[in-house]
Design a protein that fits this description.
The protein is mainly alpha-helical. It folds into two domains: about 10-80, Winged helix-like DNA-binding domain superfamily/Winged helix DNA-binding domain (Arc Repressor Mutant, subunit A, Orthogonal Bundle), CATH 1.10.10.10; about 85-125, no CATH class. It is built from five helices and two strands; from the N terminus they run H-H-H-H-E-E-H. A two-stranded antiparallel sheet has the order 1-2.
Length: about 130
């Protein structure tokens, strides 16, 4: 999936749901450094290997982690595409809010300038910025 490609709504939901848990975020942070087995991923946590496996299943269903077979070993690897799509989705809203904040800043500056000069700012600009 290219960064420009978007996830379907249910895939985006699965990504955010998987990221909502601190253990899963820690697993992803560890996998960002390279592949790891379930035992390696379980080592820093005070939980059983089956509990870590359940977290990995959530991450795998969300497409954030993949598994490859290497003999009897099945290392997990981070898959960045769902994170890139989630980042892209968040970025769109960040841009909207930045635009709104710039407009609010401009309006506040106008109101402050008007109050210092005693003029009525509503006579020069409406609240929609038009």
């Amino acid at each position: 999936m290219s960064p420009a490609m978007e996830l379907e709504p249910q895939e985006l939901d699965a990504t955010f749901s998987a990221l909502a848990n601190s253990t899963r975020r820690a697993i992803l942070a560890r996998l960002a450094r390279g592949e790891a087995t379930v035992n390696e991923l379980a080592a820093p946590f005070e939980m059983s290997q089956p509990a870590i496996s359940k977290h990995l299943q959530v991450l795998e269903r969300a497409g954030l982690v993949s598994v490859r077979s290497e003999g009897r070993v099945r290392p997990r690897r981070l898959e960045p595409e769902p994170l890139e799509a989630a980042t892209s989705w968040i970025e769109r809203y960040r841009e909207i809010w930045e635009t709104n904040y710039r407009r609010l800043d401009a309006l506040l500056d106008e109101l402050r300038d008007a109050s210092s000069t005693g003029s009525d700012p509503s006579s020069t600009r409406d609240l929609n910025g038009d």
